[in-house]
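Thread amino acids onto this structure.
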């Protein structure tokens, strides 16, 4: 860029906007028919999908586009139409007074800075999952949204899915009995070469590699580090544990009452795939919860047979029924004793027979639900809340709780030990030294705001 603003200029700008934001919601006066002017930061892959989710809503307009790669900017500009402001530096969007809210779809290592700076600048924020690269970042994001009174939604769109909301309501009402266990899966066969092992090279034309790295360590460009493949490298992402695991763990913890795990243990292996990835090929994580539920995440990336007989991505097991979820679809399968004819019982067992009959819930028998476009529904919920100043379906503190559970599993895997967790204070309680893994030192000149 020819005129990238200095950090000092930006600090002055957001400081003033932050004081305004702290004084009260900047958009509280928006009416039902007012258009919300959006800036989007990161328009490759998921960012492009979010344009598709927001664009159909007549009261939303993409007025600004930011990406560090010129071809992505041009593609997005043509897609949104009109004459949006474009830049490679997200801070130039945040200093604009005509932007009401921002949509963040950058790699994970950028989420915290862009989110916090947006809050300071008085913008509401839709940020993709996982919320953050580290637990410490996530906590700072929660604090920023509260301090500056921002409407903030994380992109775990299942929270706005009518199908998932119906299933969760049923679980929380006790229809499947006591939840004793839940499982989730990421299954994909990447053997034998995976994402390959390319040599370092010069960045492609039009890519600002230094800005792409941002607070991450300075390293030579490698085509596997960038674009979607960044998810295979820990300086930029938590791997599939945080990519898919945050979605799945969010649904499971939602069903359990949005509680934090008591602890986690995890193991991982890179056997079966030959590439330069920095995350496991195969991984198993087990969380235990204060109410006794056990939750597991199974990542199988060297084989692709279904994780269960039904090939579900998530299953939640209750004492009276099991819920299977795959994509936007859900099915509830009652336990056999709820649907089969009861046997003739000994008179001494009449009380047992009576309790079994009373336990039958016909409402779960054969229940199968198909979902709508939940990402578009999630975008709609965010826009509505920007206008009403109500809490969105996936507020940032819930996104942090779901993301932190997966980040903690990665730490447990790295340390090869079971870690106990204080989710209210974001602290590992049985290994004080392990808490140093909850954050990392940013590369200058970037700093995580206090």
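Threaded sequence (450 positions):
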């Amino acid at each position: 860029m020819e005129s990238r603003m200095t950090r000092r200029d930006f600090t002055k700008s957001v400081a003033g906007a932050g004081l305004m934001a702290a004084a009260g919601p900047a958009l509280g006066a928006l009416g039902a028919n007012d258009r919300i002017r959006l800036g989007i930061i990161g328009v490759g892959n998921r960012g492009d999908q979010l344009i598709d989710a927001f664009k159909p809503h007549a009261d939303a307009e993409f007025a600004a586009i930011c990406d560090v790669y010129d071809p992505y900017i041009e593609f997005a500009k043509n897609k949104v139409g009109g004459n949006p402001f474009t830049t490679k530096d997200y801070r130039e969007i945040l200093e604009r007074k005509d932007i009401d809210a921002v949509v963040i779809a950058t790699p994970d290592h950028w989420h915290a800075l862009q989110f916090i700076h947006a809050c300071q600048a008085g913008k509401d924020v839709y940020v993709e999952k996982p919320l953050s690269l580290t637990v410490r970042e996530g906590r700072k994001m929660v604090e920023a949204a509260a301090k500056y009174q921002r409407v903030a939604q994380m992109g775990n769109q299942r929270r706005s899915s009518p199908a998932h909301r119906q299933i969760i309501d049923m679980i929380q009402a006790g229809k499947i009995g006591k939840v004793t266990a839940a499982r989730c899966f990421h299954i994909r066969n990447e053997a034998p070469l995976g994402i390959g092992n390319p040599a370092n090279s010069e960045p492609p034309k039009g890519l600002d590699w230094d800005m792409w790295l941002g607070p991450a360590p300075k390293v030579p460009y490698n085509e596997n580090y960038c674009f979607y493949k960044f998810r295979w490298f820990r300086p930029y992402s938590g791997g599939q544990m945080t990519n898919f695991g945050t979605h799945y763990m969010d649904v499971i913890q939602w069903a359990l009452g949005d509680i934090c795990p008591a602890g986690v243990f995890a193991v991982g292996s890179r056997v079966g795939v030959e590439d330069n990835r920095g995350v496991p090929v195969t991984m198993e994580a087990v969380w235990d919860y204060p109410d006794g539920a056990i939750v597991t995440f199974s990542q199988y990336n060297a084989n692709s047979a279904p994780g269960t007989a039904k090939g579900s991505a998530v299953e939640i097991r209750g004492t009276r029924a099991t819920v299977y979820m795959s994509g936007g679809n859900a099915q509830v399968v009652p336990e056999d004793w709820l649907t089969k004819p009861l046997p003739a019982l000994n008179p001494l067992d009449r009380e047992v027979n009576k309790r079994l009959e009373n336990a039958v819930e016909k409402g779960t028998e054969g229940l199968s639900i198909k979902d709508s476009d939940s990402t578009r529904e999630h975008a709609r919920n965010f826009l509505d809340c920007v206008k009403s100043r109500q809490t969105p379906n996936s507020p940032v503190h819930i996104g942090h709780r779901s993301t932190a559970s997966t980040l903690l599993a990665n730490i447990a895997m790295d340390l090869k030990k079971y870690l106990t967790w204080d989710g209210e204070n974001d602290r590992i309680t049985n290994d004080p030294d392990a808490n140093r893994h909850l954050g990392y030192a940013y590369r200058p000149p970037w700093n995580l705001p206090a």
